[in-house]
Structure formats: structure tokens, C-alpha cells
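Problem 3 from the worked examples.
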Amino acid sequence: MVTSADYDPNTTPAMEPPNGQLPDLDNPETMHGWLIATAAICLTVSLLSILLRTFVKAVLMRKVEIEDYALVFSGLAFIAFAGVALGSTNLTHHLWDLTIAQALHVLGFENILGILYGFVMFPAKLCVLLQMQRIFRGSKRDSVFWSIQVLIWLNLLFYLAVTAAFIGVCSPRAKLTNPLLPGKCISINASILVTSAVNIVSDVTILVLPVFGLYKLKMAVKRKLIISAAFSSGVL
């Protein structure tokens, strides 16, 4: 990204376009409409599911557990996440179609999304893991129970670290959107790659863990297959 004082950050493209492309700062190509549609669908499905579960647990069953509060918190954080994502149309533009000033503004929005991400993901995973623990543990503290405990604490520590990394990405923090200030920043790309890799491992582990729990249950094979199919819907 160009940051030299020799350029006007309000009129200079943030990067050179690829071969065959020209920067278009006045009428850039955008996918903001797709972002709005995706956010609307995800919010609708997620929030309706949370509301339905909350209604069943709070009104019909009259038994609200810790995981239910965690899921509601995750839903509220997801609303905030979507609101920030939709708050800047520049997030869906090519970098060469943005000025330096606009690109730095986008960095600020992306950083806020990174901070909110842990508040969305950890409570959601905590809900799944605690629900899984209630299903499989019974009165025993077996390998499944301890595996779930390890996953809960590892995820908590990981998302705390990720959130702290995004909050302290630059010192001073103002350097994030003003790179000419003295100070230093850590690599945002490295944080995103590490987060993606750990999330994949965590999600796969949470998906596979019920298989071992079902194996230990004393029930008919047919019923185990039905329950396995229900858990397999998590692949979606």
C-alpha cells in the first residue's frame, strides 16, 4: 500500500491494479449487494433458530442453562458483527478502486470485525460443547467429558488471544489507520491465517467428538445411526 507523503491519500489508488485493469475511484465495482443478501440470510436463519430454542427452553421446558445464555450472547454479537460489516461499502471494493484514505478506513473496520469475531464464535462453540457434555456425560467424568473440558478451555484461551491481538495490533493503536505515525504493528494477515487454521481444527474436532460419545452409549445400533445423522447436520 502506498503511504508516502508525496501522494495525496484522498486521490491516489491504494495499490497498482493488475494487468489489464484500470483503477476506478468514482464508480468502483462492488459486491455490497451480495454482502447485504448474505448477511440478511445468515441473520434470519441464526436469529430465528436462537429465538425458537430460547422459547422452547424458557417457556415450554422452563429450564434455562448456561449454554442458552451463551447462545443468546453469541446472537447479539453476531448482530453487531453484521452491522459493522455492512457499515462500510468500501469493504467490498477492489483495493485498486480505493484511495489510500479509504483503504486505511477499511483497515479500521476489519480490525473491529476481528475484535467482535471471538465474541460471536466462542459463546456459540461453548453452547455446543456444554450441550454435548449434558448428553454424553451422565454421572461419569470419562474421556468424553475431559475432551470437552479441554476443548472449552483451549477455545477460550485462543479467542482471548485473538481478541487481544486485534485490539493491540498496533502500538500506538492510531497507527492502524495512520501508518505514518511512529510505532509498530503486527501482521494482520498472520492473525487471520492462524485464526482460520485453528478454527478448522476446532470445528472438525467438535464435529467428530460425538461419534466417540455415541460409541460409548448402550443403545441399539439403529438408534445410534439416527442420532449420528442428527449430529452430522453440523457439517452444513
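Problem 4, a separate protein:
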Amino acid sequence: MSTTSEPTASPVPLRPSSPTKHSPDTKSRPHPKPSFPSPKVRLAIHDLSHPGTSIFLTNCDPSKALSNAVQTVLSILYQPTKTNSHIPPTRSVTLVLEDMGGVAYTKGIELDDDHKEIHFSLSYIEHISADRRRDEIAGVLVHEMVHAWQYNANGTCPGGLIEGIADFVRLKAGFSPPHWSKNKGGNWDQGYSSTAYFLEWLEGQQGEDTVMKINGALRGRNYEEDVFWKKMFGKDVGSLWEEYQGTLNDDQW
């Protein structure tokens, strides 16, 4: 007699196991670290035939020099955050090379102060000694770039402190020229290198973010000398200056 075999069941395909919480596929990606803003940088040359123009272009890559100056200034005056809302909203910086007196100056354009211009004298560049050209150009750009990003207490901050912070950043960036020196006498707000060395000493006493804090305290409020310095350091600025002067020798370099 014939027999019929019972049908065998087909094996059920196994589903691939879901990745466990320890699987590499489910690891959360690290959040990117906050970074500083990168404004558009531009170059305008008013006289291609000027000797200072060829000296500048031979000793400087404008795009790299301006971008480096921006990042140098921001790293000394600020800490980056997700929004960077505490940093002035400078959207562009244009370097203007022109034949003019003096060294350089920075301004916002009339229609929109968030766009800055650094005017740099071609005559000054022409007369920089050959061995100093690269560092001097970089130093001037860093100093002027500070003015594109620093706070000024709604325009009430003493000019000497504004210029002193700019030269402090230049000093900290390693571009101080050989003729700068620490001198006894004078006033704390004499500006430029004199105030820069005072701020350097103050950072040594109060911590490396001291000038960063000074700049931040100049944001969105008017400057009142006694209130400003006593609130930050518990002393008036005259007393701090005297302490600094006491660290200098009569023949201080």
C-alpha cells in the first residue's frame, strides 16, 4: 500500500538582531565644539604701482593674514559659544591699502557699522626695514583687527584703554616690535604699548583672562572709571598703576 509523507515545515528565516544599545551604530556622535565667526575678508588696493604694494604682497598672503588676525583677536578677547552672541556681529573686514599719512586706522562703513575697513598706509609699508616686514605687517593687522571686534563702553571708554587693549593683543600674539619698552612714569591710560604692558602685568596678577573680562565689561554700558576698576579688581586704577610702576626699575627696558 502506498504511504504519503507529511509535508515538512519550512524553516522560518531569522530576523537580524536589532543593534543593542552598545552597538557602534547607535553611538551618539559628539557635538562639534563651538568655533569663532569667520567674517568675509576683502582686499582693496588703491595704487598698484606704489612700492609699498609690492612689498606688502611679497611679504603677506592677504587672505591668510586677515583670517589669522581675526582668529588671533577673537581667541584672546573671547571664548566661543554655540551662538557667539557675546561677540560683536562684524560681518566683513576690508583691508584698504592706500597712500596716506600715519600707519593705519579702522572704521565701520557709514551704511552699516557691522562692516569694517582697515586702512593701511602704503608709505609706511614702503619704509619698514626689510628684516621686519613680515612681523610688522602682521602686527599692525592684528592691532587694527582688535578695533573691529572690541567693545568700547558705548563710545565712552578712554582712548588710551582702547589702544592699550589693541597693543596688548599684539603683544600676546608675539608681534611686539623691538622698540617697545616698559617705562617708568606716565599714566595708565597713555595707550599703546605703555598701557599694553600694564595690562600684561595685570593679567599676571589677576589671571590670564583678565583683559578678556575687561573687554566684556565694556559691553553695553558707559564707562565710569572708579566704578569700573573697583568693581573688577577692588582697587582704583591709579593704585593698580602705582603697584605696576613699583615693579619697574629706573632703567627698565
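Solution to problem 4. The beta strands are 40-45, 92-98, 104-108, 115-121. DSSP finds nine helices and four strands in the chain.
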